[in-house]
């Protein structure tokens, strides 16, 4: 899906900047967003365009441009917790058995409960009741 979306952007003439932070948003006297100042491994750059799409994930461009925004649930102010993703190496599928669902007909609940209990016994409480893990077995040869 990521590749398809990149191809569609390219076909539409969209200039995509990955791994880039918004530093400033410059508006015209008419209050229109004209240029964006960014920072990346390419250094500090400014981009001027008729249209910008804020894909920062946090609305950084919109906030820098002075746009109004809401944060969190309208009644509680609560926000969605971030996702924790990690790659754990050095374990065999057998050693991790019981913490993930394999291809058999077992339900998801038991492995998720076991993983949550292990996390909590280590002093970490997930923000959701049913964390999950996946096993990827890849054979590498030298």
Reconstruct the topology from this structure:
Layout: H1 2-11, E1 21-27, E2 33-40, E3 43-48, H2 60-64, H3 109-121
Antiparallel strand pairs: 1-2, 2-3
Walk me through what this model shows:
The protein is of the alpha+beta class and 142 residues long. The chain has 2 domains: 2-64, no CATH class; 84-142, no CATH class. Helix content is 20%, strand content 15%. The protein has 3 helices and 3 strands. It has a 3-stranded antiparallel beta sheet. It is elongated and about 60 Å long. The protein starts with a helix and ends in a 21-residue tail after the last helix.
Could you tell me the strand content as a percent range?
Answer: 5-15%
Count of runs of 4 or more consecutive helical residues? 3
> What's the β-strand tally?
3
Structural class: alpha+beta
Poorly predicted ranges: none
* Helix-strand pattern: HEEEHH
Largest sheet, order of strands side by side? 1-2-3
Radius of gyration: 22 Å
* Apparent shape: elongated
How many angstroms does the end-to-end distance come to? 31 Å
Query: Can you give the mean pLDDT?
Result: 84
- How many structural domains? 2
Helix percent reads 10-25%
Largest sheet at a glance? 3 strands, antiparallel
């Amino acid at each position: 899906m990521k590749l398809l979306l990149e191809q569609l952007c390219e076909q539409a003439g969209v200039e995509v900047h990955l791994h880039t932070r918004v530093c400033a948003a410059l508006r015209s006297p008419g209050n229109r967003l004209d240029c964006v100042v960014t920072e990346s491994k390419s250094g500090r750059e400014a981009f001027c365009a008729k249209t910008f799409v804020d894909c920062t994930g946090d609305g950084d461009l919109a906030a820098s441009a002075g746009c109004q925004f809401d944060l969190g649930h309208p009644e509680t102010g609560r926000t969605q917790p971030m996702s924790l993703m990690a790659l754990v190496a050095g374990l065999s599928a057998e050693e991790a058995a019981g913490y993930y669902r394999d291809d058999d007909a077992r339900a998801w609940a038991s492995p998720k409960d076991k993983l949550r209990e292990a996390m909590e016994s280590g002093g970490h409480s997930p923000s959701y009741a049913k964390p999950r893990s996946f096993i990827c077995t890849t054979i590498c040869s030298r």
